[in-house]
UniProtKB/TrEMBL annotation:
The protein, known as: Protein O-mannosyl-transferase 1
Subcellular localization: Endoplasmic reticulum membrane
Keywords per UniProt: Endoplasmic reticulum, Glycosyltransferase, Membrane, Repeat, Transferase, Transmembrane, Transmembrane helix
SMART domains in UniProt: MIR (SM00472)
Catalytic activity reported: a di-trans,poly-cis-dolichyl beta-D-mannosyl phosphate + L-seryl-[protein] = 3-O-(alpha-D-mannosyl)-L-seryl-[protein] + a di-trans,poly-cis-dolichyl phosphate + H(+); a di-trans,poly-cis-dolichyl beta-D-mannosyl phosphate + L-threonyl-[protein] = 3-O-(alpha-D-mannosyl)-L-threonyl-[protein] + a di-trans,poly-cis-dolichyl phosphate + H(+)
SUPFAM superfamilies per the UniProt record, alphabetical: MIR domain
Membrane topology: Multi-pass membrane protein
Enzyme class: transferase
Enzyme Commission numbers on file: 2.4.1.109
Major subcellular site: endoplasmic reticulum
Amino acid sequence: MLGFLKKPVVVTAEINMNLVALTIMGLISRLWGLSYPRAVVFDEVYYGQFVSLYMKRIFFVDDSGPPLGHMLLALGGYLGGFDGNFLWNRIGAEYSMNVPVWSLRLLPALAGALCVPLVYQILVELKFSHSAALGAALLILLENSLITQSRFMLLESILIFFILLAVLSYLKFYNLQRHRSFSGSWWFWLLLTGVACSCAVGVKYMGLFTYLLLLAMAGLHFWHMIGDQSFSNVSLICHFLARGLALLITPVAMYLSFFYLHLTLLYRSGPHDQIMTSAFQASLEGGLARITQGQPLEVAYGSQITLRNVLGKPMQCWLHSHTNTYPIRYENGRGSSHQQQVTCYPFKDVNNWWIVKDPGMQQLVVSNPPRPVRHGHIVQLVHGITTRYLNTHDVAAPLSPHSQEVSCYIDYNISMPAQNLWRVEIVNRESDTDVWKTILSEVRFVHVNTSAVLKASGFTFIYLGASLPEWGYRQLEVVGEKLSKGYHQSMVWNVEEHRYGKSQEQKEREVELHSPTQMDISKNLSFMAKFTELQWKILTLKNEDTEHKYSSSALDWITMDTNIAYWFHPTSGAQIHLLGNVVTWASANVAALVYMCLSLWYLVRRRRKIYDIPEDAWQLWVSAGGISGGGWAVNYLPFFLMEKTLFLYHYLPALTFQILLIPIVLQHLSDHLCRSLLLKSMLSALVVAWFSSVYFVYHTFSPVTYGEPALSVPQLRDLRWKDTWNILLRKQ
């Protein structure tokens, strides 16, 4: 019974020592001296702010992309015990002792280090030799720009890691396709492909390019499967559903989970609240929630309300009026109605309060029980402090002469009657009997007499506002816009603050309007509502792109005609630059050119039924080029269509794919074009000499890659291999 104890338990394992050695070297190159310099380096000043906000659970919006990358950086801060207390105000600022610099930079460094063995594995899965795979990994290991970018609190190394992981996972899945379909390992690699693609997109939207490339490859491979008669119809359906689950549903679910975690962590009100809707703001702890919590939900006749414009850009603003009137004549000679001004004011003020009045009754208080206002009801809006009625008429607006002037009506006993009836239209209603709700309802006010819509004017597509002159206190113009001119968010308003009016007398009502709302109301939006709004803000929010000293064009990247000074020590002159390995970049360009020329040559000759290489070699050549060349193209060419400030580091994902072409082309030359032993020996000698030059350049520029040792002014001048490089020289 216990006979099995007579023999020892033996466990055998195959260990790829190349992989182990590459991983160790990658870790050393990226983790060595990681805390140096103990100062803010380039975009750490940008990402560090978000890390601090995560530590304090304060909500923010970053228009640069989804939140996964920020959360990973914040995870490093959390593991290091960072409390978020540091002022990220300038590059080069010394970190205080409470900032765990090593921990904050750890995850990007680990991601950069793991890219080295990932590249090795990708070449192996593409069926290239281990020597070619080793060469590709060493090129990534010795690429100065990738080292620099991965040693600081930046996102590119994390993005590249997930991109390479997605490519490797798909290749492993594809290679298991023929003999081990639906096995555990087959499912693992297929699902990991979807997860890695989702993570890449979740770090930066640039990851979408590689995701689409892999989807195209998966679609092409499945198309070939359809033509394979060895697959039954049932089997094809199962394969299709499996790919749909792993490559479409799983990434979408993962992407949503990133935002769910982001919104769960950031539950406190913060400086970015103002660009969100009132409902979103009210869902955060503090800020607007402290004001609106407990307010009446349904707007009724007699309600006292503030109306916030839904657009929220260039700044949040509320419908506002004051005792000043429009000038009788504007600077351009046009006349006005000389009525009381109505504007959109970007600050909370007692003059933002309006009373919802029933046109058929005189009372300005809420009845008991309250009579709610519904979609389609006609109302008058009475300015709380001046008790004048919101009005519009066929008079040109001050800044928008093709729109109607909006005012609070003053009776001058002239032939200009009041036109102060407005129809409430709830834009996001579920039915035509919906009640107008505080915060939740988005409404338009349509003028009964002229069909004009109340609009905060001056908003263009990029959300630049037009403000009134000095007589209007530089506030935003409000106009009546004809419905025929289309729909825009600047025509939509929501009730932000709300109370049921109790005072009929004007003096008592003014005291009531000056007092804060005593009842505080909680509005809990669903996750999908918050996600939809936040996602839309990320995609449409545009900060003004300004010319940066180190910005560049996409054409500058291929030949590395630009660099970025990341850090400079004011006394020693030590500095860190984003500079690539010149030999590697040039070789990658040559490899891409050789690949395109050879591919065109092969295609023309194959058209003539001349086959220079075996079919399996041709398929290998095409598939390898599809991944490496295709990866370079999809991660590079879109930048020519982007209207944003570009930097050299945007090219690094494309560069990584282009570097893969170097060993692919070299092995192809060795296997199929160098057919004599002499030619193979000569090619090998050239490769050794070339690789020595790669290492020489890496070693030469390592002082400005790692920031130490500090170089003298003559040594720094010697590193300026191109006139376009900006190497910093301290004054002697």
